Amino acid sequence: MVLAEYGQFGSVVIFVAVAIGIANVCLLLGLLYSYWGTYRQVKSKFTIGLLYFSTFLLFQNIVSTIFLALPLFVPIEFHGSEIGGPRLPLFLINIVQLIALSILFKITRE
Fold first, then answer.
1. Handedness of CA 47, 48, 51, 54 (dihedral sign)
2. Rounded to whole angstroms, how far apart are CA atoms 55 and 8?
């Protein structure tokens, strides 16, 4: 398997980070759908701003998740600890985004 060279901890980090990235993308798609519906009714500049914000954050999450998922499909040479690698910081950023997006999604749906 391609992930064998990352060790058990590195493999878990990659799988969980990709799952969280996918969850972030789904939340952002839900927010975009909600904001689009609001924009069609209200047509305010604030709602346009929310649409732009969500779109750019969606793009960032798609790119980040693809980067995190690369080792699942392509053998990548990596020497050293996963702790010092780029995937752990992205994993932590994705967790923070998941919490923030979940709160925003809950508030938006109410």
1. negative
2. 34
User: Tokens at residue 62, please?
Assistant: 């798609």
Residues near 16 by Cβ (< 8 Å), separated by ≥ 6?
A: 91
The pLDDT value given to residue 85: 60
pLDDT level of residue 80 (50, 70, 90 thresholds): low
Among candidate residues 31, 1, 30, 35, the one with its CA nearest the CA of residue 15: 1
State which amino acid sits at residue 49.
G
Residue 28 CB-half CA count within 13 A:
21
Closest CA to 98 of 22, 35, 29, 41: 22
Within 10 A of 10 (CB to CB), how many other CB atoms are there? 20
